[in-house]
Amino acid sequence: MKIFSGIQPTGAKHLGNYSGGFRQYAATQEQGEAFFCVVDLHSITNPHDPQDLRERTLDLAALMFATGLDPERSTVFVQSHVTAHAEAAWLLSAVTSYGQLGRMTQFKDKAEQQEFVSAGLFTYPVLMAGDILLYQTDIVPIGDDQRQHLELSRDVAERFNSRFGETFTVPRGVYPESGARVMDLQQPGNKMSTTGGNPQGTIYLLDPPEVVRKKVKTAVTDSGREIVHDLNEKVGISNLIEIMTVASGESIAEVEKRFQGAGYGQFKSEVADAVVALLEPIQGRYRELREDTAELERMLARGAAKSREAAAPTLEKMYDRMGFTRPKGV
Ligand code: LTN
């Protein structure tokens, strides 16, 4: 089974990204041949700063390895290192409907917020379809906000297959349910988020221990004093319980049982300790890789080589079936 997912090198990554993303990637790599891609080409669809893109690309790659992606077992690479992605996007634009692209809610939302709307913002989902289809991907672990884009990828695959002959596996999206619900500590009605959230309510994966402790200590709680999971009456405490499950690996019931009779103060301080214990080794590995750029670059070069090899046969098929002549030996 082939697994592919892409992660954008934008925004500082937080505990919600860990719970719904990084943690799942590390788990999925056990299930098959997994490709994890830092989608830097997607990041130029919104106005960007070049130096920033460079740093964030390396930051994210280091974080992916630090949270448990194994360069031996999985293929971790940067999208722009494998030119097949840009090529596939152009070829697939021929079988993507202009009307369907215009109906993408992410495009409509972002276009509304910007004065300069790039063509790349509009064709973003075509690049994404190429990412997935180049690897004959069976499964795409992905956030719920990407459902519409994944459906478009499936439509593109089906249209290509029916016009030019069976070429692509039609991929299936897998939307993580459990553990994905990490809410903002200050506004527990909203998801933890880099863009929409409150920085005080967001635990970044690279926050130092004292910052994590302060954020957890000042988290909004609810009236009453019991540590019970109740999404109607106790959103703040429920969120801290879920955060504890992410950090300690316990179930909700186990956390409730362990803190029966404890007060909010004690509970918060133990949640903080558990999150610090989760993040410390991740931050340690992250720092090592960030300080040894040569090693990180070697790991990414290896990922790029493996991806190129995996993508090449599909790209060749695409060119061939669409009627392109190919120079010999390329
Ligand atoms: N659009 C996705 C990132 C992304 C992706 C992909 C995810 C780009 N290409 C291919 C899965 C498969 C996002 O914004 N999360």
Task: Explain what this protein looks like in three dimensions.
The protein has helices at residues 15-28, 50-66, 84-93, 98-102, 105-113, 119-133, 147-164, 209-217, 235-248, 252-258, 264-291, 293-321; strands spanning 2-7, 33-38, 75-78, 139-141, 172-174. Helix 3 crosses helix 6. The protein is built from twelve helices and five strands. The protein has two domains: 2-176 and 293-321, 3-Layer(aba) Sandwich (Rossmann fold); 199-287, Tyrosyl-Transfer RNA Synthetase (Orthogonal Bundle), CATH 1.10.240. Bound molecules: L-tryptophanamide. Residues 4-6, 8, 39, 42, 128, 131-132, 140, 142-143, 146, 149 line the site of L-tryptophanamide. L-tryptophanamide binds next to strand 1 and helix 6.
Summarize the structure.
The chain contains 12 helices and 5 strands. With 330 residues, the chain is mainly α.
